[in-house]
Amino acid sequence: MKFKYKEQKKLLGSGTYKMSKSKKFKYLSEILHLAPYTRSGVNICASASPICADVCLVSSGRGQMNSVQKSRLNKTHYILGNRTEFLKQLDNEIKLSYRRAKNKGFKYTCRLNGTSDLPFERYRLENGKNLMDNNPHVQFIDYTKIKNRFKNKLPKNYSLTFSLSEINKQDTNALLKTNTNIAVVFRNKLPKKYRGRKVIDGDKHDLRHLDPQKIIVGLTAKGKAKKDFRGFVQDV
Description:
By secondary structure, the protein is α/β, with parallel strands linked by helices.
């Protein structure tokens, strides 16, 4: 399949509300937003549940703007059509942002899957390294619904949190027996404990690498998810 795309001046952004919260902790945080699920013609969220796809936050905030949607679709066609060049540009942006953060006395974090679920740890630059190994001083952060991503050893600077949905409870049960942190969406308020684990407020920031191990990252329902009662959002 051939993909048409235009050159993209900037792949990463820091303008989301949650990313801005990182500044309180002396972090500059950026995020990559693609067109999720099958909106590009290819499913880039392999283990997305039907409800997850339906209530996706891709259309919240600035994502409601047509220009933003077009940009995210273009970026998706870019990585699907020319992954080598996409990764090269992304790597350059990460290096520039890291230096900018360092000059300001900040640390730098990058979330690659803002509205996607791609195994970036397996994607190689022209030098044979992935983005994490090529940027050892940068902290990478992501959520995923793909259990198999935890099978292999992840780069030390890549913090990956598993996300509960209405169809992956078996995978969640298996990962609860490990040190893997699980993100869970709750409807109104966060419980103190869930499935025997302590619940922390994951809406305070997105710096998941700062979380202790074996906890539940509690997220409150937003957007369309607030009125969804099909199992994606947990009621306690």
